[in-house]
Structure prediction request, 873 residues.
Amino acid sequence: MTGLAVDVVARRGGFALDVRMEVASGEVVAVLGRNGAGKSTLLSVLAGLVRPETGHIALAGRVLTDTGRRVHVPPHRRGVGLLAQDPLLFPHLSVLANVAFGPSCLGASRRQSEDAARHWLSEVDAVGLAGRRRWQLSGGQAQRVALARALAAEPDLLLLDEPFAALDVDAAPALRAMTRRVLRGASRTALLVTHDPLDALVLADRVIVLSEGRLVEQGPTRSVLARPRTRFSAGVAGLNLIAGTAGPHGLATPDGTRLAGLRQEPVTDGDPVVGVFAPSAVAVHVRRPHGSPRNVFPALVAGLEPHGDVIRLRVAATPGLDWVEGLAADVTPAAVADLALEPGTMVWLAVKATEVAVHPAPSRA
Amino acid sequence: MTRLTLSVVLAVMMAAGCGSSPRQGADTVTVLAAASLTAAFDDMKTQFEKSHPGVTVKITYDGSAVLAQQIINGASADVFASADQATMSKVVAAGLTDSVPQVFARNRLEIVVWPTNPKNVVRLADLARPGVVVVTCAESVPCGAAIKKIEQSSRIAVHPVSQETAVTGVLSKVETGEADAGVVYVTDVNSAGGRVLGIPFPEADMAVNDYPIAVLKNTRRSTAAAQFVDFVQGVFGRQALDRVGFQTP
Amino acid sequence: MRLPALLFVPAAVAVALLVLPVVGLLSRTDLRRLPELVSSPAAVDALWLSVRTSATATGLCLVVGVPLAVVLARGRLPGLRLLRATVLLPLVLPPVVGGLALLYLLGRNGFGGRLLEAALGIRLPFTTVAVVLAQTFVAMPFLVIGLEGALRTAGARYEAVAATLGARPFVVFRRVTVPLLLPSIGSGLVLTFARALGEFGATITFAGNFPGTTQTLPLLAYQLAQSDVDSSVAVSLLLVALALLVITLVRPRVIEGSP
Prediction:
């Protein structure tokens, strides 16, 4: 394969990272895990900033690290770009010079570098910022420029270390959409460290979950988030996810069911999307409800478990509605008693269209 | 806390201040003397105190100019012994002497070289030879003024690479071998022991340094001070000066 | 922010300690004779020599001190802690002892001095070069220690980013480390220059005292103090004025340059 192949053991203080993974060329993989799970160490090892104790890293057909043969390609020749939570724009350079930094290091002339910089700035809609300095940019603008700067160095692998975590709630969605466009558009190989399942959902083909330095779970984004096998991914995946294609009212599931929802970003009809809603937004009825909820579908109660003050209900699919499998709904203990809910009970789930957020999904998700 | 710290600081400062001002006890004569007199005056102090029971002599050594400045700025002392007349004149001019300064010793210049004399320097003219690295005193220092005078009178131009601000500077440069030769006073050669070799030269007669001594105006121990000045000019004093190379009148 | 009033008392004591001696110097000056004393050929020569040597020493500190600071702050060599301690040495060493140390190394009978004389026919003591070396020796720590601290505080994150953008180590140093360090370099250089300007002990020990060649302003001031205190005070004031000029003119611009 021409993507990324990693098999390393690295130590930092008392902490050990022991990971074996592969990323296909053009694939975006989200790395999830708690603080201290080893996510940042993994990125540092890949970027060449930390030397692993033992192991092997290959990228795009080149060996970057091979402790057995004492190979350690230094950071500047690895072709691995890094976009961190802090944009870290060089304060002594203009935005244009920041973005031109990578190309000029690769040997481009001043003019070529600046042309490349303008191109990448336009890719992130930031051409107008070219003459500014770091302190004249908002957080979101700075992060866009940092993204352009990382891309302008033409890396074979882009590492994104919680790139939206420091941004305002308002700025994050736009930048996420932007990042999605540049990553997916050019089929970039990227590793995305994040806390936010939405990042994984929108940007990643695949998710890996790290815990205490080890890879504990991996798989396609939606299945990991929908059917978490570890406590961490369950915590992350408190949300209900429904995959489908974009339609005029929201999304359509593969079996043709229409789910009404609100688009979070512009998408074209027919594009793959994911509908996201919280278990608390789901109403449970024993008879088909009438009235406002447009999204009503039948399901079978699969299990009941206490979840704080409420009872979390998990459902299984009824014949012909496979995508219902695994959805969660929060109900009060009183309602459980009133409705006589128990595993095997047939119920109707209702969600308001305003509670369903429709996000673009990675094409292969 | 702050007040306490402050009072402690003040107390310490006052104590230090008191300690540093020469306290004139009933039987203490305070003498300010040129640094070149150190060996001779230490010797005299011992003998004077022996022959004058109950009198203590306290001597501060420094450059004559520095001492003169201290006197003019109000340092309380009883006797001043300078290494040259010019410096003494300043104190006289300030009206701070109580007796007419009297010359008690004379000092001559000598050439000083590394003990083995590698450049074979035997006369003053050798110092003008190319390839001989010479250091002298700066003109503002008595030993520098003297060599300048000799140069003018003898028409031998010495080209020093450095004009040291103190005799010790000349000696250390010869001792470390950085300079081939220097010009200092006989007494300095003697105090350097065997680490350097002194070479007398006749032209030194042209600038013999006179050392004057005087009782100072504000003395409270005029009798003891006068006794010390007499002692310096007496037999014992002359012997002590003689031993370290001074000529006595 | 309002400062606690208590701060002003010790601050005032500090100012008094720093400023009053200079006031004392001024009070002793015969202002009518000042222009004449300050413009004497000896004073002008010494001033010019001081400016030239201090500037050269500062330049030398820049060329070798900045790389040293980066090595100390970022290097991963064994024995770096020992090296860090060694850099502090000139700060602790009495300058006269520093001058002797230079003399024993680079003097006529020193190891380095013999080598220089045999190989290049150069003798350092009593030359202007010796003045510059003495000044560099005592002033270097002021630059290196300040810069090392600044580098540690700033961290290596910008350098890491530059490396991932393809910059090889020297390019990182030239295009990221140094520009980011400029304010600290500026203030460090002012300190270095000021220390070189005031240097006395190591200079007189290693380079001697000769007008026009090795007699810098502090040496002249000291020499004059032996005979003519008025002139000495005048020359000292010249030194004070020059130092103030450099510190007030250069420092704020370098430090408060841009946000």
Chain B is about 40% helix and 20% strand. Chain B has a mean pLDDT of 85. The interface with chain C takes residues 2, 63, 65-66, 69, 86, 133, 135, 138, 140-141, 160-165, 169, 172-173, 176-178 of chain B (CB under 8 Å).
